[in-house]
Amino acid sequence: MVVEVGYARAWDPEARTPWRPMTAGEARERDAAGLPYVAVYRTAGRETPLEVRLVSWRDHYVGLWVYDDQGRRTFDLDMRLLDDPQRLFHRYSVAWNYPGPETAEFDPKCPRVILDLFPDGRGRRKEEPRGYSTSAGLRDDQRWMDRPAFGEWPLLSARMHGLTEPPVFEAAEVSEGDGGEAPATCWRPPRPAQPGRIGELFRPGVRVTDGYHPEQTVVEPHRVGTVRVPSGLLAVSGLFTSHENGPHLTVPVPPGEYVLDEARVTFGYHCQWEGAEVTRTDPTAVRLLVSETPAASWDMALGADDDLRIFIEGQTAGFDTDGATGCFADAGAFGTLLSLFERGLIKGEPDLDGYEDLADGSMFMQRTWDTATGGELMAFATTGDGTYPVWLGRSEDGELVGVVVLVEGMPEILPERDGDTAGA
User: Fold this and answer.
1) How far apart are CA 201 and CA 395, in angstroms?
2) Any idea where the domains of the chain sit in the sequence?
């Protein structure tokens, strides 16, 4: 079988067409420079491609999208280039098994198998929508593949398309023109979770929505108190998970005492229990204020074992909690502070020195302090269990100015109305 190979700057998955086709020579140059490009494999008489290979070496990424005769994606493979430049790691994949030709692409009811793998040998195999999950149980040669040289890639989907003989590759013709501006739907390499406009949550008057309440208004941040960090190492962690190796995350800060405040929104809604319109104020985030300088950018705090090279689209790092509670604390006294927290909250020891149950109406619940070092811990409530990313706000010069945890995800910022003076 003859398979035509074409190259382009990008691929538009909605239109199923390449954007800005280019010659193999141009693609080879982009490949050598680590720049993104795609390779599209087609056969005569078939409207949809057999597969599309998506490459961005600067992002340590190679993807493979396989299509059926109806133009539906049936397989999505995410491979990563890690420490060995000659091998690719099978990081993540989804295989859809459409029941019939009328089933829509990515139908949530469509059976699919997800492999989520890690270089240390861990991995899960999940069957959706059943929700069935087991250990991946793959051999090393199933997790890794040799990296082919440019122009020597095989048709990786040959078996899926029922091809038994090696295909013969031919170069596709390159159409003239620059293709115009790239459609917003064009593929881009996977990115970890993005922070959003976190600073807006601390600007009174900004309007937001959490998707359930159509409109909420940011009010003045509520100052909860301060946290002393004499060791110069801030801990941000859950409180009811294993801490054999210390807190989940640590962030270097100048030794000192820092203001802790919470971002809040107010909104009205009809309360069925009271049979009337009521106004409510809820927290959206907690912040340790390192400096009064406004944050110009935000990045996600990473733990010692976090490797951005293997993050899939939207993946987060952060602290885990199975008790809907997190904390800011002095990492130098974390063990003592955590013990005081457990003795005060769980064991309920009366008149415990070094533990205080706060009842000021804020989302914060408990504070502990270590008299020997002066280090402190402040616990706060999240809206549930799971992983909570920690966002580091930085000034224009890159200096750390704040550490923020969103307690239930980033709300959508609504457009300002004419005449609004929020943040003015």
Assistant:
1) 17
2) 2-171, 198-413
β-bridge partners, 261: 223, 287
Alpha carbons 51 and 75: distance in angstroms, whole number: 9
Tokens encoding 247: 């807190």
By C-alpha distance, which of 48, 53, 49 is closest to 36? 53
Q: Which two tokens stand for residue 91?
A: 């990081």
AA identity, residue 196: G
CA distance 319 to 171: 49
For 394, how many CA atoms within 13 A lie in the half-sphere containing its CB?
A: 12
SS3 202: helix
SS3 annotation, the chain: CEEEEEEEEEEECCCCEEEEEECHHHHHHHHHHCCCEEEEEECCCCCCCCEEEEEEHHHCEEEEEEECCCCCEEEEEEEEECCCCCEEEEEEEEEECCCCCCCCCCCCCCCEEEEEECCCCCEEEEEECCCEEEECCCCHHHHEEECCCCCCCCCCCCCCCCCCCCCEEEECCCCCCCCCCCCCCCCCCCCCCCCCCHHHHHCCCCEEECCCCCCEEEEEEEEEEEEEECCCEEEEEECCCCCCCCCCEEEECCCEEEEEEEEEEEEEEEECCCCEEEEEEEEEEEEEECCCCCCCEEEECCCCCCCHHHCCCCCCCCEEECCCEEEEEEHHHHHHHHHHHHHHHCCCCCCCCCEEECCCCCCEEEEEECCCCCCEEEEEECCCCEEECCEEEECCCCCEEEEEEECCCCCEECCCCCCCCCCC
Percent helix, strand, coil in the chain, to 5, is: 10, 40, 50
* Average pLDDT per consecutive 10 residues, the chain (424 residues; last block may be shorter): 96 95 97 98 94 98 97 98 97 97 96 96 95 93 96 95 92 79 93 95 95 92 94 93 81 97 90 81 94 95 94 94 91 93 82 78 77 94 91 97 94 82 48
Beta carbons of 141 and 11 less than 8 angstroms apart: no
Contact 382, 320 (CB under 8 A): no
